[in-house]
Amino acid sequence: MSCRSAARSGGSGRFAAAFGPVSRQRLRIFLVKLAAMILFAAMFAVFRGRSPLGMLAVFCGWQALLSAVTALLQGRRLNAGRLSAWDEMAAFVGISALARFARLFIG
Predict the structure, then answer these.
(1) Which residues, in sequence order, are CB contacts of 1 under 8 Å at separation 6+?
(2) In the chain, what are the domain boundaries?
């Protein structure tokens, strides 16, 4: 089931059902990591006087590197039929780039 057909046929519940149990667990782990990084970025911004977006970009960059190392050590394929550490790495790289780009405009 593609993303478009999931969106047309009933929303996010069906979208989540399009993933297998391993992919759903990987997605939950990713969201927990992302929430923790947002929290730590906000804490560093308050206590160290840094930009929250800059800190989020740094944390996501490091997490992308750790995800890539994990995927290499586990021997994961790039084109696996389920979400893997490679997908997590790509998501963290994208969030890091987005945070750096947003920092240009927001500060």
Answers:
(1) 14, 17, 18
(2) 20-106
Determine the residue type at 85.
Answer: A
- Both tokens assigned to 70: 């994990």
Count of CB atoms situated within 10 Å of the CB of 5:
11
Query: What counts of helices (H) and strands (E) characterise the chain?
Result: 5, 0
pLDDT tens profile 1-35: 444 444 455 555 665 566 788 888 889 999 999 99
Per DSSP, 78 falls in state T
* Residue 23, amino acid: S
pLDDT at 2: 47
> Residue 46 burial (CB < 10 Å; 0-12/13-18/19+)?
exposed
Alpha carbon separation from 50 to 96, 101, 102 (Å, rounded): 16, 16, 15
Q: What is the mean pLDDT of residues 86-107?
A: 91
